[in-house]
Design goal:
This protein has about 250 residues and is an alpha/beta fold. It has an 8-stranded mixed β-sheet. Helix 5 runs antiparallel to helix 7. It starts with a strand and ends in a 5-residue tail after the last helix. About 45% of the residues are buried.
Length: about 250
């Protein structure tokens, strides 16, 4: 298992050899590189395309270091992990594909260092990004509660169940959920100046309409995956086709 270092933490990653600048995949909350990407066919798809790809376990997830301090999951540190992997790959620039939590990270990376991020694809995210945050921190609470049956909200219960199925460290996930994240605003995202694709399922209540988000980013495109919710969209064939068409400049 190869590792790279970022901010004093050891993070696990995979690399697939191929042509062109690398594409870095950033998974969602409570997931990991194997579940979000490898098992669902993304590694194989990149291999068949002959494209260079890397995917890593975000801090607090999978086989990477799992600090229990929320400060370790601040957005700038999560974004810094992406650039640290680029450095490990000796890649001055890389295209970024993120899903859900990973989508927020890749958008923030494009704002932070646009000269290193030629293209961004943000999946599992949409217009609800601009909704006010719920009171308290229900996602972190769901990770910490002793009895998952006591979680009333079905979506939160699904995330808790998913985390347990993956054998994730729930205290690390709770710390990640409590990290100080300034909200994204329309004004902030209007500053994204790289080609951007937003993708979400038509039944994804967590993401909302991808077109609403795309409208805030100059020149961004949106794709809606029919019949998909937040969890089923990742493996959808149209998602993969849209990603590769966008990377190859073929998306109409």
């Amino acid at each position: 298992m190869p590792l790279f270092e970022s901010g004093g933490l050891a993070l696990a990653y995979d690399e697939i050899a191929g042509a062109g600048r690398p594409v870095i995949l950033v998974h969602g909350f409570a997931s990991n590189r194997n579940e979000n990407w490898k098992r669902l066919g993304w590694y194989g798809a990149f291999e068949r395309k002959g494209l260079r790809m890397a995917a890593f376990d975000a801090r607090g997830h999978g086989e990477s270091a799992k600090p229990h301090d929320p400060v370790e999951y601040a957005r700038d540190r999560m974004v810094g992990d992406v650039f640290a992997l680029m450095d490990r790959l000796n890649a001055p620039r890389a295209d970024l594909v993120g899903y859900s939590m990973g989508a927020r990270i890749v958008l923030a990376a494009a704002l932070a260092q646009p000269d290193r991020v030629p293209m961004v694809i943000a999946g599992g995210i949409g217009g609800r990004l601009f909704d006010p945050a719920p009171p308290g921190n229900p996602m972190a609470d769901a990770m910490e509660v002793a009895d998952p049956a006591s979680i009333a909200e079905p979506l939160l219960r699904s995330f808790r169940q998913f985390a347990e199925e993956q054998g994730e460290d729930r205290q690390a996930l709770a710390a990640c959920g409590r990290a100080p994240y300034p909200p994204f605003t329309r004004e902030m995202l209007s500053g994204v100046r790289v080609p951007t694709l937003i993708v979400a399922g038509s039944r994804d209540e967590l993401a909302g309409d991808p077109a609403v988000l795309a409208e805030t980013i100059p020149g961004a495109r949106a794709v809606t995956l029919p019949g998909c919710d937040h969890f089923s969209a990742i493996s959808h064939g149209l998602f993969k086709a849209s990603v590769f068409d966008f990377l190859e400049g073929k998306l109409e």
